[in-house]
Amino acid sequence: MAENKTVRFIITRQDSPDSDPYTLEFAVPYRANMNVISALMEFRRNPVDITGKKVAPVSWDMNCLEEVCGACSMVINGKPRQSCTALIDQLEQPIRLEPMKTFPVVRDLQVDRKRMFDSLKKVKAWIPIDGTYDLGPGPRMPETKRQWAYELSKCMTCGVCLEACPNVNSKSDFIGPAPLSQVRLFNAHPTGAMNKAERLDAIMDDGGLTNCGNSQNCVQSCPKGIPLTTSIAALNRDTTIQSFRNFFGSDQA
Asked: Which InterPro entries does the record associate with it (predicted)?
């Protein structure tokens, strides 16, 4: 009987960024240990809807298929998550797939995450070191700091935390939890601390830290379990100190 079992999906589709969304229902043969990605691949091989009508294959993003790249984010049964780790056996049917609403839709389940990447540029979420020559060994980070910093470095820019955050929307400039957490990560690095004040000033601007409503949806939805709210709390302290330094004209660390 297992060979006759099917998995039903209801997908929100959109043919172009400017077109209206609509739903499509289809079914694919069930296999043990299927995830949402493998079901979409099966539908791509035989793109017919539930009535047997030939339709265009569904468009979605994917890359690593092991919850590392963050590309395959979508809303599955109302919850933003990675589709590569969404196992069919653990999902209620029919399985509903929607694009994340925080980002503009490109087509079907594909979205443009430019908003998040622009925010990472705004906070300079990198360590700017000029030149390709050997600079010698860098400063060492204490082991206790390295351990929690490693947890922050797990961010894969999947956008799930921004989708879950009620303060990230089309009417708000809030940069969201992921870029904020990256500020804490790079400011903690001994070399990255050179630009600490610049990053803190960036998140003290419009759309920065004060736009966080502390709903804590981000930390609950993060597929990597990153302590986003802990970072936000730490940044509140750091920006308070930075504001005093700015006021008194102090550039001391």
From this structure: 2Fe-2S_ferredoxin-like_sf, 4Fe4S_Fe-S-bd, 4Fe4S_Fe_S_CS, Beta-grasp_dom_sf, Helical_ferredxn, SDH/FRD_Iron-Sulfur, Succ_DH/fum_Rdtase_Fe-S, Succ_DH/fum_Rdtase_N
